[in-house]
Design a protein that fits this description.
Layout: H1 33-62, E1 81-89, E2 96-104, H2 109-121, E3 138-143, E4 148-153, H3 156-159, H4 165-180, E5 188-193, E6 196-197, E7 211-212
Parallel strand pairs: 4-5
Antiparallel strand pairs: 1-2, 3-4, 5-6, 5-7
Length: 222
């Protein structure tokens, strides 16, 4: 009797392991290739980023920091000023002439007196002659309680004096009139020298008390 080799029949679904048994009419499950591709792409992206950082980092660190040049702002506007009556020696040297000049504005009466005196002591404008000895400076200004002002001047007001009663009167009343003519609340001025009371500048005008405005020394019609 001829021995015939039989091929065993394929296993039935019941004989297959549970995880391999296909459902009736369903396709066999595909291998998870998409997840593998995602992992590979992520690794390549990280590697590329690290290479780019290593290549550019030296350039970034060596790059000089650029500072924008400062913007030139326009000059500040001119400070507030007022018009004040200042007094200079007349062309014949016998009296004072009045001239309206621009003077810095003071926020307080004391500061305003200081600015007026400083303007009076400054070199005169063209065409005018100052009665005040050159180099005289304001050392301090004080206001009393009865409308009087005390103006402390540097020693040059005495040492630079040319002498004579006329010249002394022109110096004294150029200062007194410049304050009393511009500040209604100040009616008299006493001149001090280097912080001290003095009898006079040149021996003629008594400075031991505050002096009022002297219209007689101002050219008539002004």
């Amino acid at each position: 009797m001829t021995d015939v080799t039989r091929t065993p029949p394929p296993p039935s679904p019941e004989d297959m392991p549970f995880e391999q048994a296909p459902l009736p009419g369903a396709e066999p499950p595909a291998r998870p290739r998409s997840a593998l591709k995602t992992v590979i792409a992520g690794v390549l992206l990280v590697a590329g980023g690290l290479w780019l950082m290593m290549a550019l980092l030296p350039r970034i660190l060596s790059r000089e920091t650029r500072t924008e040049p400062p913007i030139n702002t326009p000059a500040a506007t001119t400070a507030r000023r007022i018009q004040a009556n200042l007094f200079y020696v007349s062309d014949d040297g016998a009296e004072l002439v009045q001239s309206v000049r621009d003077v810095a504005f003071g926020d307080t009466p004391t500061l305003q007196v200081k600015y007026i005196i400083e303007a009076q002591l400054a070199p005169p404008p063209s065409g005018f002659v100052s009665a005040i000895p050159a180099g005289t400076k304001v050392l301090g200004v004080f206001l009393g309680t009865h409308g009087d002002a005390y103006v402390d001047l540097s020693p040059e007001v005495v040492s630079g004096h040319s002498g004579g009663s006329l010249n002394e009167a022109l110096v004294v009343f150029a200062i007194v009139n410049s304050v009393t003519s511009n500040l209604p609340d100040v009616s008299s001025v006493q001149i001090l020298v280097a912080g001290k009371e003095v009898d006079s500048l040149a021996g003629h005008i008594d400075l031991r008390e505050p002096l009022s405005r002297a219209q007689a020394w101002i050219r008539k019609g002004q």
